[in-house]
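Sync notes, pocket subgroup
Present: LS, DG
LS reminded everyone that the earlier model was apo-only. Rerun requested with magnesium ion included. Inputs:
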Amino acid sequence: MFDTKILGTDEDSINYAAELLKRGEVVGIPTETVYGLGANAFDETAVRKIFSAKGRPADNPLIVHVSDTEQISELTLKVPPLALECAKRFWPGPLTMIMPKSNRIPTVTSGGLDTVGIRMPSHKTARAIINSCGFPIAAPSANLSGSPSPTTAQHVFDDMNGRIPAIVDGGMCGVGVESTVISFEGENGIRLLRPGFISAEDLKEITPNVLIDKGVLEKLGENVKVRSPGMKYKHYAPKADVTIIDGTLDDYRRYVKDHSDSDTLCMVFEESDCKEIDLPFICYGKTDEKQARELFDALRELDKRGAKKVFARCPNKNGVGLAVYNRLLRAAGFQVVKLR
Ligand code: TXA
Ligand code: MG
C-alpha cells in the first residue's frame, strides 16, 4: 500500500494537483462545504475511479463543479431562467442546481440519469484547481460511502489513505454540511432536494414557490421513486444507536435521566446542557451555523470513542438548522422521540 500525499494550497501544490487530475487521477479537494473527491467530469475512466475509491453505488450521480457560470451552457441542454437568477444570487457558493444534461457529460458521471447537478464552489483553492485544469470537476463528498462527510483533510486521509494519490489541505471547511441541492419545476418553482447553507428561506427570495421534497424529512418507502438517488442510501451512520430527542432542554434532561445506562453518551449543544447528568458527552455547537460546521466531526468522534447509545439534542428545523437536522436524522436512522 502507498501513502496518500497531503498537499498545501500554494501555487506549486495547486499545479501538481491539476497535473494529477489531467492525467485522469482522483484528488481530494477542499470546498467551503465539505471535502470532495475530484476527477475530470468528462473522463469516464477517471470518474469510475471515484466510484471505486468511495465504494459508491453506480446509480448515485456526481455533482459537477465549475469555476465560471459560462461553463454551464456546455454541460446542459437547457438552462431554466430561474437557474440563472439563482446563479447570480448564490454563486459562487454552496448551491447545486439539477438541469437537463448535454451529451458532454458521460452517463457514468450522471449515474445514468439525463440530468446533471452543477455548482460553483466559493472556496478559492477549489476554483483555482478547476481553472488550472480547464475542465469541470466531478466530485462527491470525499468519505467512504456511508461515512460522515469529511470536513478536514485528516478526515479524508482517514477514509482514503492508499486509495487516492493526493489530498489538497485547505484547512477546516467553513460551512461543514454539503451544498443545498435543488431542481426546477415549471416556470416558477424550486424543489429542495437536500437542505444546506443556502436555506429554503434564502431561496424564497428568488421565488415564493419553494417546495421541500418529502425525502428531506421523512424516510421514503422501499418502492417510492426518489428524485435524488442520494436520498435512498444510508448516510452518515455512526456505529452507535443514535436517537434524537425533540424537546426543550428540560425535556432532554428528564428523558436522558430516565432512559440512560452505562453505555449512554449525550450529544448536546454545549457543556451546560449536561448539568446534573453524570454521563460522557460531545458538544456540537450552540448556533445553527456552528452545528453545521461541527456535526460531521462529532459523528466521527462517536465512533472514535466507541459510543454505543447516543441521545442527541434536536437542532432547529429552519434556516441552516434544517440541513443539520436532515443529516442528524439520517445518522439516527430516523429515530426521533418527540416530546413537544
Ligand atoms: O457540497 C457538496 O455538494 C459536496 C462538495 C464536494 O461539493 N459534494 C457532495 O456530493 O455532497 P455527494 O455526491 O456526496 O452528494 C451529491 C448528492 C447526492 O445525494 C446525489 O444523489 C445528488 O446530490 N445528485 C447529484 N446529481 C443529481 C441529479 N442529477 N439528480 C438528482 N440528484 C442528484
Ligand atoms: Mg456524500
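DG: The domain at 241-338 is CATH 3.40.50.11030 (Rossmann fold).
LS: The chain has a mean pLDDT of 96.
Action: DG to write up.
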